[in-house]
Amino acid sequence: MFIKKKVIDKIGFFDESYFMYYEEVDYCYRAKKAGFKIGIDSKRYYEHFEISVNNPKKEFYLFKNRFKFLIKYGSIKQKIREFIRIPKTVFEEIRKRPFYLNFFSLNFSSIINKILHFILFLIFISYFKPEEYGVYTLAWTQVGLLLPLVDFGTTSYGLVHINDSIERKIRELFSLRFYLSLITFVLTISLAILFEYPSSILIPIILISFVIFANMFSGTYLILTSIKQKSYFASFVSMIFQLFLVVSLIISVLITKKLSLVFIVTFVLYNLYSLVNFILIRREVGGLSLKINLKKWLEIIKKSFVYLLISLLAGFYSKVDVLILNFIQGKEAVGIYSAGYRFLDALMFVVTAYNVSSIPLFSKLVKEKKINIFKNKIRKDVMLVFTIGVFIALGFYFLGPIILPLVYKNTYLQSIQVLRIIIFALPLILLTSVFLNSIYALGKAKTVIYIFLFQLIINIGLNLYFIPRYSFFGSAYITLGGELINTLLTFIVLWRVL
């Protein structure tokens, strides 16, 4: 680029605020406005050594500086046009960045699913008695007890270690996940029989257990699409299915008012969901095999066993109160307790969103040995999540008795009191998430196993002692106390490893 001295004397130097693109465009525009001629010698060229196809930083600076140029020199008409097409512009920019497209689609899908199932919950407590809703909760709790076995850490393994020969490795992974789901299915039903559930609960558990296979198929498709940087496909399929499922369940309840039909519809639609994901996987990788490869399986299991134990212990810890409550107090108590707990569960997307956003950054800071920045982020995150959690908890505590009677019918009014207790677990869960994510980033995940094992033992003991005396209120206070202990223990562990 050749610039005459008189041009510089008249319009000055480049505008450095354009760093690092568009400064020459701005300069040429200013020169033209000042009356100078600008041009390109098309007979001259040189080799440009930048060969990057995907450069997020470059895309960001180009986008930012193009917008800056528009604001600075654009006409009113051009600015209005750009304002109107903002949604399209944002979509175009996100499409250039697979990470953001996948991240937002997964979180959007998760939030939509939470909203849909919360609407379904409101329908259930409007049409079913607490003991009926208790059966529904017990069926899902029993199935969820061993659900971490289906994954067995294969999702993490697939995302981290499958970078080449994708189709072949996905087929190997599929066979392992299939046999894990089969084992989990058999163990879940066997455990339900061992617990001596009556047929009114056992049959729903058997029907819901087919969700295990649906999770296996949908999880495999998520791994495959994530590896190919196209997880928004899996998000879209999941969201459409959940919408169809919830609408179908609501219609079945409104027409028949029978809980049995809820389980039948769930059974049919989840098996259909399995079939759809199976077809999608086959379309991507070709034929699927159920070949047993113990050597490869052991390699995967060895790398993921710690996280499997954490998932299992955390799952047992969060579900044991419902099981004990059922055996001591019955289905009605489970229904009342679960109806209160459901609001806290609906807010778990806040925790998930924080975890998804924070874990990569924590890991990066530790890897780059930026310990001071790492500690500073922990402090900031503690203040942020605790403030959010307390604000939400106080809102439910003070406004709950005024607003929630509009949601709960008379038979569920005690659920409001359960919620007013249990909602204060939210800020504690958020704090624990900060400490756990930091511990994971520091490579001390094994320590968490002992925390959850200790918590599980304490939780079982306290529930067995207090439920006969205080029923579901005892479970609510134990849940709150358990989360407080979790927060303190994870803080102590983090304090020591730092």
Number of DSSP-assigned strands: 0
Query: What is the overall number of helices?
Result: 21
**How would you state the average pLDDT, rounded?**
83
Main sheet attributes: strand count, strand direction, barrel closure? none
| Main structural class | mainly alpha
SSE pattern: HHHHHHHHHHHHHHHHHHHHH
Strand content: under 5%
End-to-end distance: 53 Å
- The value of Rg in angstroms is 28 Å
DSSP helix fraction = over 70%
Return residue spans where pLDDT drops below 50 for at least 5 consecutive residues: none
Shape: elongated
Domain count, please report it: 3
What is the fold's blueprint, element by element?
Blueprint: H1 5-11, H2 23-33, H3 56-73, H4 76-84, H5 86-95, H6 98-127, H7 130-145, H8 148-151, H9 154-161, H10 166-194, H11 199-208, H12 211-227, H13 231-256, H14 259-285, H15 294-329, H16 331-346, H17 348-367, H18 371-403, H19 413-422, H20 425-441, H21 445-497
Helix pairs in contact: 6-13, 6-16, 7-11, 7-15, 7-16, 10-12, 12-13, 12-14, 13-14, 15-16, 15-21, 16-19, 16-21, 17-18, 17-20, 18-19, 18-20, 19-21, 20-21
